[in-house]
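Predict the assembly for these two chains.
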Amino acid sequence: MTTTKKPVDNGVNVEAILGAREALTEQPAGAKFKWRAKCEWLTGTHSRSTIDGFYGLGEEQKHRTKFTFDCDHPEIFASEDKGATPVELVLAGLASCLTAGVASVAQNRNIQLHSVTATLEGGMDIQGILGIDSDVRNGFDGIKVTYDIKADATPEEIRAIVAQSQKRSAVYDVITNPTNVTVEVRA
Amino acid sequence: MRVTTAIIGAGHTGLAMSHCLTARSIDHVILERGEVANSWKTERWDSLRLLTPNWLSRLPGQGYHGDDPDGFRTMPETIAFIEGYAAAISAPVRPHTRVTSVRIAADGYEVVTDQGTWQCRVVVLANGSCSVPAIPPVAAALPASIRTLTVNQYRRPDQLEAGGVLVVGASASGTQIAEEIQRSGRQVTLAVGEHIRVPRVYRGRDIMWWMDGAGVFDDRYDEVDDIHRARNVPSLQLAGSTDRRTVDLNRLSGLGVRLVGRLMGIADGKAQCSGSLRNVCALSDLKMNRLLERIDAWATAQGLDGEVDAPERFEPTRVEDSPPLGFELGDIRTVIWATGFHPDYSWLDVPVFDRKGRIQHDGGVVHGHAMYVMGLPFLRRRRSTFIDGATADAQDLSAHLAGRLDHALS
């Protein structure tokens, strides 16, 4: 029996990623990246972040265009709701990072994806940020990510892709592990 | 003193190589810092047994002929086995001869020891992969009031103060040690990173019997997808015991061991744990099931399905919905680092290392040198990790070594 199978294409250039991996194994200095954002206060709780340049492969790099993200708080917080809340952007960051990983891992494992949807929910007791109860933390008390994935693969293979994506995800690591944050003020 | 080949280390790999060189009439000496089977004598905890059954703990020319092929050797039995082998093959061991430097010399290498200097043409590094405990940087932040031990310093529970014990690492050593300390009445907290879960017995046979039969141990270093990754896989979560019990995280939490995520930091008297516990357990369960599938497929292909028990899938690792992300160090009296080992090549003054200090070699043949390395995980095959792997590795590498000498003469 002969079958003509369409080559798996999730839009991920795995050869380029593997090539970069090989090159950076030889040249580890090139693997040192710096990601940057700039944020300007507008009014009230409304602010706008711009993301433009970053550093990597030994030199300054630029995105193809400048990206802007508005953040605010909803009206029930007496704000004007001109953008998503910052914690919602964190959920978006986690979702996009894991989903990029799902596509890459699936491509590398020669598995065709048809649809990938992540639904995220982060629980939070706002007694923390309002300073009502110092025993309540400010951040999420947990994040639930639910994936609905259609792919040419068994449920076990799909679970393995999602598990591997968590293992290699930057934002998953940022959220699950402590990170030193240094905030300075230029006066 | 002059010799063709200097083998450094009189453990099972050095002796296996000695046997193969003798068979090829290649003169050699084994330089041993202590005695034959030194690490087994001085760096193992009391209750440890080999993880491989007796029938699978072979050396070149020496199979198992005892009456307990499925048993697991205790440390005294392992030492007696290796000492007996050294005597049986009349291995030219120089005990209490510590190598302090190996350097390039005219026509080979100069091996400096505290008992004199040897000139040789070929060096075989057989000094073991478990010499220097790999302790994560977070250790530096532990309060001085907490006693710390590495796996090779730990002997038995009554060596520890009463009170809580943190075991860091959930591979073969960490899980076994956590189990016996918890059973001694001390509350154990086990920090769990990536680990490889396997049942001790599957479908009525030892998991090693299946892995051996299905060819898992014969996967070769030059055929697997990513050898660097394969060499860094943690040890199988296995224990050798008379009741053949599986020591996995479910058993440990059933005994009352508290499971937490990987230890990431220490701040304000608290340990900080990773929120990745559920994923590392999911990865491990998935990996175990893939192994069991490979075994089941092999069993069917061999027509074993009627002979052995039916296929089985085990309960997924039980992890609470929101595992603790930290805990007070106040209750912890002892920390045991079961976080792996590095080989010790501090005396090797030959430029053979990569930027991370690992020897660059091709299946044990050191790049650009008349030098061989043995006994590292997945050196040439998955089997290389175990005592039983020394036979095929020593045969392959001694053949390469002999070819090199013949070539040099012609």
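Residues 2-131+343-409 of chain B form a domain with the FAD/NAD(P)-binding domain fold (CATH 3.50.50.60). DSSP finds nine helices and 23 strands in chain B.
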